């Protein structure tokens, strides 16, 4: 697992990047409920084959060249079978997307999420897992992985252990769907545990955070809702860069507690 950046360093980094590189956003002008409905309706169009392919024209390119105002931030898996803009039928400038194997929330991903949620002001954050996730499957089956992959998938291990405790009699293949869902909640927990800015925006309802799982065969997104222990996660202090905490409760350790 990569070392999480301290709050001070992360905040300075995001501020510097936002002010010097990216076009500043002033928010999308929609509520979290409206953003949520747009995502659900877009997926329904995708599943039914009635996609609108919105905001892909020449005029849209001109508009977004002047600045971006997405209505949702999504962190999803890098899997080639999960084209996030397409499965929600959204176009250029609509979605601020972070993709990483296993949809984990570690330092780089959290910094990117903070840019979408805090700087661009998206009112909705979706943590999107998917069925048959290779990264989750590798952890469930204790696959022999090499290079930098072990440091990536160790973020998934607490979720897999949680799924095993709830379903001790399941075979690895049967356990994967439960581990996929646990991993979505684990990512939400990791994000809120390590990001003051996202947690504060969630606490005062400037952003709504929901989990979801995509089905590769049907194209349907199942909405999991908020983390079931959202209230306690919003109250917990930020974990520091060395993996310690400042009064962090022990009941958050060892995986998702949903």
UniProtKB/TrEMBL annotation:
Q: Where are the transmembrane segments?
A: none
**Any signal peptide, and if so, which residues?**
1-23
Name the record gives this protein? Carbonic anhydrase
Q: Keyword set for this entry?
A: Metal-binding, Signal, Zinc
UniProt remark on cofactor binding: Binds 1 zinc ion per subunit.
Cofactors that this protein relies on = Zn(2+)
Which family is this sequence assigned to? Answer: Belongs to the beta-class carbonic anhydrase family.
Q: Where does Zn(2+) bind?
A: 77, 79, 130, 133
Biased composition, class Basic and acidic residues, residue ranges? 242-258
Any one Gene Ontology MF annotation carried by this entry is: carbonate dehydratase activity
What is any Pfam family matched here? Pro_CA
Q: Where is this region: Disordered?
A: 236-258
């Amino acid at each position: 697992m990569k070392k999480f950046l301290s709050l001070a360093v992360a905040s300075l980094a995001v501020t510097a990047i936002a002010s010097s590189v990216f076009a500043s956003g002033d928010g999308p002008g929609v509520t979290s409920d409206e953003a949520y409905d747009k995502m659900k309706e877009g997926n329904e169009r995708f599943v039914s084959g009635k996609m609108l392919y919105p905001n892909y024209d020449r005029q849209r390119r001109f508009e977004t060249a002047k600045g971006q105002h997405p209505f949702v931030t999504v962190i999803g898996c890098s899997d080639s079978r999960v084209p996030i803009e397409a499965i929600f039928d959204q176009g250029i400038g609509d979605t601020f997307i972070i993709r990483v194997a296993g949809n984990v929330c570690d330092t780089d991903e959290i910094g990117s999420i903070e840019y979408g949620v805090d700087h661009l002001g998206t009112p909705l954050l979706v943590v999107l897992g998917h069925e048959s996730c290779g990264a989750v499957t590798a952890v469930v089956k204790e696959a022999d992985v090499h290079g930098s992959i072990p440091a990536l998938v160790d973020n998934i291990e607490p979720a897999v252990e949680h799924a095993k405790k709830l379903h001790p009699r399941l075979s690895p293949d049967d356990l994967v769907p439960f581990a996929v869902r646990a991993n979505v909640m684990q990512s939400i927990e990791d994000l809120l545990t390590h990001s003051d800015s996202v947690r504060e925006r969630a606490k005062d309802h400037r952003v709504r955070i929901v989990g979801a799982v995509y089905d590769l065969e049907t194209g349907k997104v199942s909405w999991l809702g908020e983390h079931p222990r959202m209230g306690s996660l919003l109250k917990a202090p930020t974990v520091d860069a060395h993996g310690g905490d400042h009064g962090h409760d022990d009941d958050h350790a060892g995986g998702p507690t949903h």
